[in-house]
């Protein structure tokens, strides 16, 4: 029953952000308390969101229910290489990642069972009309909802383990670009839109927490990779010249998007009852993503052209996170954090759908408890991507001329709010 | 509230982190313009820019000069960019919108079952519909774009080049009062007040020979003043005139760019048909063909026939012999007894129809023999640029380019190595903003339907290359254009 209602919530809120918070098209805005602390959580047992960060730590987390959402407000600019006619501004669109978790178990018991839903991957970008990279990408909307069922067990009061069964419960993709083919009498070139829904896929996560004292906790977790697969998605072509009907006969496509696995280690330190410090490091296995390959049920670009392949060659990416929370009063807690996230996209491989770069983030958050069982979490995240440039020569030498040379610069602001109930 | 109003700017990010400055922050666009250099002219002055050249400079495309091509000429694109750094008005001898079809041009109408393009001619409407009809409606105002389709460097000092019997495009812009004015005189008149110029002449001094398959009679002429059509201009004559025109252009200390001549054997006009011929002959196990070479009449024993092997036809895998785009309609007739190719060839000469029989006799052509594979009915010389003719073209091109480079260097001018640039395009293509363009016919985006002249996209790339040259030579920071905003081939 819980799962069902969470999925319904998903239907209403389904969205994602433009790579907010972590390299590539990870979103990772899961759990408002964690967001406020720079995205730490592997070494913490704050609440039910531990299911996501470290299912081992979940054994020590309080039971309860929480749901939260964020509004990612990206600001992305692009300036073309060589042709400086000023920067291009995207039709920036706010997106709304969300997460919700519930955790059951005896209050002082050794085990926990939980369910969760969250949006760990996604990207939505709409480039300005007629921008330089229109033949690479005009619009992308990549959305996903994962659900997870978790069990955790404290073997001793110091050591716990946990595991989650993760399902890609919903995913869809909407990719659009112009094709450099123009019909006589048409002002606009051929436009291709690929839309489809992802198959359900299973994965898992695992975690261990070691808590030698109330002042120290150490966590390790692993989240498995999942290959998101869209089969028989729809190809929609507009402005197709009649004489090229047979060269552009495709109506359906298949694609596999490899999603990375994540190794995390984390540390929680409690110097006093009021203060909690957290440190996390993540290694994201983006190197699985080498090529983006579409196959079509017909031609797309000429006789016998029934597939397309575009180099990605992502590399594994590290992220380091630091967070702190301070309990100002029994009712009011403040949080802050920062992180540095290395890009998974190599130089000369930056694509318009993921204008990734090394990024630094700063976060803040609070919790206000209303009565003894309810509370509200707030968070705010600001992320500054390093300016990233690639020249046409870079693209030529890498064989990546299917994308555009120029400079990208992104900042993202993400306010978020969550509610929780303690059982 | 009053305290907030006096909050110093530097404190705002800190407030933002606390979520208090949310609204202001969300409205803030990340700014990367500040790191970009502002456009500047450097040491160049674009107040009055004039463009000297031939069909490429005029914006000729799809085997015609028409309004759309003129508007997308590389000088017009350059002038738009110059205007950002103080460039003045740029006047072209545009056809009016009522005469927008100009000389008429080719349009793609579809593809054959085997995928070969079919083109049809859109008739001209600028007053001159056939070569013998009335001249174009004149345009006699002062102009900045002096591109004249067809003009050779050899022609620049020819008096009356623009008279009614001369070049119709130059005739169109020649003032009524001076019907015998030469191109050189016109350039001198326009350049008197110019501050900047581009000069791209010389292509036609070799192109006519090449596109006619080296079929002109007496191609090695000695006439310095005006060599016959479709022959190669003597290099000493070329050198002299290159120096003359560049001296004239720089007489008032104008700065400028001199462009050299691309290797014509890399253009789709020569690279499109041969691979199809080779594949067809290979599939039918035909070992080779008989072609006419050169322009001299004579029987099969006179040395004007030449055997070429199928393997020697150039395609991606190798070979040397190049077939012209004009041969494409007649290649399917190979192996049949036909006189149709010869009727076409004779028709191109403009001679009276009654002379066709004696024309065939002079070349000892027997149209009852099998076309293309017999000495009695060989492939016409005009359809093949063979290896010997290519050597003639290459030698001349190299010599011309040396002359142009030396003339530019002598005056300290910028030099656009179009030869190197088009060689890059022919071998590797040229990607622009996510689009892989190439020198392929139709699909490559860069060459128009005549297989020789660029599309608007191709002309935009030329403009960008010239901008790079200007920026490097004169320390300017002119922005390039987005070439993808200019069209390639349009499909029906």
TrEMBL record, chain B:
Q: Does the keyword Signal apply?
A: yes
Asked whether the UniProt record includes Repeat among its keywords, one would answer no
For this protein, the record's InterPro entries field holds: GDSL, SGNH_hydro_sf
> PROSITE patterns from the entry?
PROKAR_LIPOPROTEIN (PS51257)
Query: Per UniProt, which keywords does this protein have?
Result: Signal
A single GO molecular function term of this UniProt record? hydrolase activity, acting on ester bonds
**Signal peptide position in this chain?**
1-26
Q: What is this protein called?
A: G-D-S-L family lipolytic protein
Q: What is the native source organism of this protein?
A: Hymenobacter ginkgonis
Supply the source organism's classification. Bacteria, Pseudomonadati, Bacteroidota, Cytophagia, Cytophagales
């Amino acid at each position: 029953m819980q799962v069902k209602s969470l999925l319904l919530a998903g239907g209403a809120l389904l969205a994602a952000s433009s790579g907010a918070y972590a390299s590539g098209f990870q979103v990772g805005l899961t759990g408002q308390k964690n967001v406020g602390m720079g995205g730490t959580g592997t070494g913490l047992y704050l609440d039910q969101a531990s299911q996501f960060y470290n299912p081992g730590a979940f054994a020590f987390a309080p039971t309860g229910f929480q749901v939260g959402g964020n509004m990612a407000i990206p600001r992305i600019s692009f300036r073309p290489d060589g042709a400086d006619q000023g920067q291009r501004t995207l039709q920036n669109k706010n997106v709304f990642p969300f997460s919700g978790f519930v955790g059951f178990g005896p209050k002082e018991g050794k085990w926990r069972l939980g369910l969760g839903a969250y949006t760990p991957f996604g990207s939505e970008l709409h480039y300005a009309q007629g921008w330089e990279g229109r033949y690479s990408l005009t619009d992308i909307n990549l959305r996903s909802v994962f659900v997870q069922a978790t069990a955790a067990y404290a073997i001793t009061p110091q050591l716990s383990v946990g595991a989650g069964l993760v399902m890609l419960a919903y995913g869809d993709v909407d990719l659009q670009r112009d094709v450099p083919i123009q019909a006589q009498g048409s002002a606009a070139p051929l436009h291709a839109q690929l839309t489809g829904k992802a198959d359900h896929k299973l994965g898992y996560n695992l975690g261990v927490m070691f808590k030698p004292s109330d002042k120290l906790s150490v966590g390790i977790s692993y989240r498995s990779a999942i290959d998101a697969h869209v089969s028989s998605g729809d190809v929609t072509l507009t402005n197709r010249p009649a004489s090229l009907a047979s060269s552009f006969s495709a109506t359906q496509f298949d694609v596999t998007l490899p999603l990375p696995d994540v190794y995390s280690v984390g540390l929680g330190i409690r110097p006093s009852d009021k203060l909690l410090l957290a440190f996390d490091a993540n290694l994201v296995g983006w190197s699985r993503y080498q090529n983006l390959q579409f196959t079509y049920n017909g031609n797309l670009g000429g006789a016998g052209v029934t597939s397309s392949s575009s180099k990605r060659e992502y590399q594994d990416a590290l992220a380091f996170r630091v967070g702190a929370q301070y309990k100002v009063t029994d009712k009011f807690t403040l949080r802050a954090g920062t992180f540095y996230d290395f890009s998974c996209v190599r130089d000369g491989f930056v694509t318009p759908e993921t204008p990734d770069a090394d990024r630094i983030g700063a976060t803040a958050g609070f919790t206000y408890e209303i009565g003894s069982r309810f509370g509200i979490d707030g968070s705010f995240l600001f992320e500054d991507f390093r300016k990233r440039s690639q020249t046409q020569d870079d693209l030529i030498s890498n064989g990546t001329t299917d994308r555009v040379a120029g400079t990208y610069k992104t900042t993202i602001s993400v306010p978020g709010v969550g509610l929780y109930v303690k059982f | 509230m009053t305290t907030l109003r006096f909050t110093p700017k530097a404190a705002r990010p800190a407030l933002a982190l606390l979520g208090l400055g949310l609204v202001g922050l969300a409205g803030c666009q990340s700014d990367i313009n500040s790191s970009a250099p502002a456009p500047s002219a450097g040491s160049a002055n674009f107040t009055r820019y004039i463009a000297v050249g031939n069909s490429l400079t005029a914006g000729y495309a799809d085997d015609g000069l028409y309004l759309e091509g003129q508007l997308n000429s590389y000088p017009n694109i350059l002038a738009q960019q110059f205007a950002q750094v103080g460039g003045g008005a740029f006047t072209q001898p545009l056809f009016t919108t009522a005469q927008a079809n100009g000389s008429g041009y080719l349009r793609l109408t579809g593809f054959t079952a085997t995928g070969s393009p079919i083109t049809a001619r859109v008739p001209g409407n600028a007053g001159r519909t056939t070569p013998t009809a009335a001249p174009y409606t004149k345009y006699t105002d002062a102009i900045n774009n002096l591109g004249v389709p067809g003009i050779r460097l050899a022609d620049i000092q020819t008096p009356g080049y623009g008279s009614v019997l001369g070049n119709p495009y130059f005739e169109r812009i020649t003032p009524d009062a001076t019907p015998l004015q030469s191109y050189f005189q016109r350039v001198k008149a326009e350049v008197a007040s110019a501050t900047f110029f581009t000069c791209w002449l010389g292509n036609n001094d070799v192109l006519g020979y090449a596109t006619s398959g080296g079929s002109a009679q007496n191609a090695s002429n000695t006439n310095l003043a005006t060599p016959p059509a479709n022959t190669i201009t003597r290099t000493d004559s070329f050198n002299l005139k290159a120096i003359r025109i560049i001296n004239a252009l720089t007489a008032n200390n104008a700065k400028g760019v001199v462009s050299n001549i691309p290797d014509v054997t890399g253009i789709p006009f020569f690279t499109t048909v041969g691979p199809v011929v080779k594949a067809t002959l290979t599939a039918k196990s035909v070992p080779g063909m008989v072609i006419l070479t050169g322009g001299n009449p004579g029987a099969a024993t006179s040395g004007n026939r030449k055997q070429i092997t199928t393997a020697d036809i150039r395609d991606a895998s190798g070979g040397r012999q190049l077939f012209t785009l004009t041969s494409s309609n007649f290649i399917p007739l190979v192996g049949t007894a036909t006189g149709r190719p010869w009727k076409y060839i004779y028709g191109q000469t403009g001679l009276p129809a009654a002379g066709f029989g004696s024309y065939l006799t002079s070349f000892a052509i027997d149209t009852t023999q099998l076309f293309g594979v017999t000495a009695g009915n060989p492939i016409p010389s005009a359809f093949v640029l063979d290896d010997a003719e290519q050597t003639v073209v290459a030698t001349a091109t190299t010599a011309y380019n040396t002359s142009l480079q030396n003339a530019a260097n002598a005056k300290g001018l910028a030099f656009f190595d179009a030869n190197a640039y088009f060689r890059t395009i022919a071998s590797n293509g040229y990607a622009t903003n996510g689009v892989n363009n190439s020198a392929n016919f139709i699909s490559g985006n860069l060459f128009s339907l005549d297989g020789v002249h660029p599309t608007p996209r191709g002309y935009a790339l030329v403009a960008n290359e010239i901008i790079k040259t200007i920026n490097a030579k004169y320390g300017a920071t002119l922005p390039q254009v987005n070439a993808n905003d200019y069209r390639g081939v349009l499909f029906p």
